Amino acid sequence: MVAVAEIEARIRSNLEPTSCEVTAISEEDRKYSVAIVSHIFEGMPLLKRHRMVNDLFKEELLSGDIHALTIVANPS
Amino acid sequence: MVFFFPSFFFHNHDRELSCGKVSKAFIYIKKIHKMRRVSSLKEYNSLKEEAGNGLGLVVHFSASWCEPCKNVGSMLEGYLSQYNQKVLFAEVDADLVTNVCEAENVECVPFIVFFRTSSRERAQERVADVVGGKLDHLEMNLVSLYGNGHDTRESFPDLNEYLKYLTSRKGVVAFITGTPSRPRCGFTGRLVEIFYELGIKFIYYDVWASDEVCEGLKKYSEWPTYPQVYVDGELIGGYDICSQLKESGELKAILKH
């Protein structure tokens, strides 16, 4: 299990978002939802955006501390 | 010249004996691949044990009065030689063998149950169902669960070659947890619903069937979760991406459908 605040902090310090919203869909099931707006995503294919976000939590996703991240990542 | 013996003579196995024209009779026994007609619960349980020698078992619950059952039966018969006893096919007359129906909780016909041989105990694990005579779902499950009969993991020199093969198969390939009819995760269920809603034909791989594939594909694709959807060996994404592509109207085109 990972704190929502930890997820948000890591996104903010790595992706320069103008907007960042993190929700625990189900903390018990370790499912989280993240909605990010960042200029970094400009011109970037959807798959690459999601991969960038997933990479921030690579260890947690592999260890199972995070079961699933639902991601919305837009440049504006 | 061909000799036939009554089937009961060989303890419910059909055999064909043939003589060539030689000075000394040359006799060989050939097992004919056929649909097993189940007549008792005991026989059914024995069949499930026998299926442990191969990839699995497909059971068609039918009735003589059921018209769609004939189409299902014909289609399944067409797969017998391809799977060549690696997958066993059985038919249960639901009117006559009611205790098997009760044992498997089957209440309508046609009803097709797919079992997979679990790698650990060689027991038959019930992994998918097709309710009704949906021939396209039958085919999807057969191909997804048992491959083409020859393309099991042992046929490939290493895991990466196997993963490359699995992800590059024709059409849309979804790596999911469980199966479309028995999903083990909400995301898998919702992904399948998207495909059905848009009429997107696909095959799947249940990553629960193999720890090696389940963990290996995450590294191979650098994608940490399931489902994972591929076209032509290229990762399209997971449920989120497919859902967003559907909303933007791009999913069918991207899946080359």
From TrEMBL, chain A:
<protein>
    <recommendedName>
        <fullName>BolA-like protein</fullName>
    </recommendedName>
</protein>
<dbReference type="InterPro" id="IPR036065">
    <property type="entry name" value="BolA-like_sf"/>
</dbReference>
<dbReference type="Pfam" id="PF01722">
    <property type="entry name" value="BolA"/>
</dbReference>
<dbReference type="InterPro" id="IPR050961">
    <property type="entry name" value="BolA/IbaG_stress_morph_reg"/>
</dbReference>
<dbReference type="InterPro" id="IPR002634">
    <property type="entry name" value="BolA"/>
</dbReference>
<dbReference type="GO" id="GO:0005739">
    <property type="term" value="C:mitochondrion"/>
</dbReference>
<comment type="similarity">
    <text>Belongs to the BolA/IbaG family.</text>
</comment>
Automatic annotation (TrEMBL), chain B:
<dbReference type="Pfam" id="PF00085">
    <property type="entry name" value="Thioredoxin"/>
</dbReference>
<feature type="domain" description="Thioredoxin">
    <location>
        <begin position="1"/>
        <end position="168"/>
    </location>
</feature>
<dbReference type="Pfam" id="PF00462">
    <property type="entry name" value="Glutaredoxin"/>
</dbReference>
<dbReference type="GO" id="GO:0005634">
    <property type="term" value="C:nucleus"/>
</dbReference>
<dbReference type="InterPro" id="IPR017937">
    <property type="entry name" value="Thioredoxin_CS"/>
</dbReference>
<keyword id="KW-0408">Iron</keyword>
<dbReference type="GO" id="GO:0006879">
    <property type="term" value="P:intracellular iron ion homeostasis"/>
</dbReference>
<dbReference type="InterPro" id="IPR033658">
    <property type="entry name" value="GRX_PICOT-like"/>
</dbReference>
<dbReference type="GO" id="GO:0051536">
    <property type="term" value="F:iron-sulfur cluster binding"/>
</dbReference>
<dbReference type="GO" id="GO:0005829">
    <property type="term" value="C:cytosol"/>
</dbReference>
<protein>
    <recommendedName>
        <fullName>Thioredoxin domain-containing protein</fullName>
    </recommendedName>
</protein>
<keyword id="KW-0479">Metal-binding</keyword>
<dbReference type="GO" id="GO:0046872">
    <property type="term" value="F:metal ion binding"/>
</dbReference>
<dbReference type="InterPro" id="IPR002109">
    <property type="entry name" value="Glutaredoxin"/>
</dbReference>
<dbReference type="InterPro" id="IPR013766">
    <property type="entry name" value="Thioredoxin_domain"/>
</dbReference>
<dbReference type="InterPro" id="IPR036249">
    <property type="entry name" value="Thioredoxin-like_sf"/>
</dbReference>
<dbReference type="InterPro" id="IPR004480">
    <property type="entry name" value="Monothiol_GRX-rel"/>
</dbReference>
<keyword id="KW-0411">Iron-sulfur</keyword>
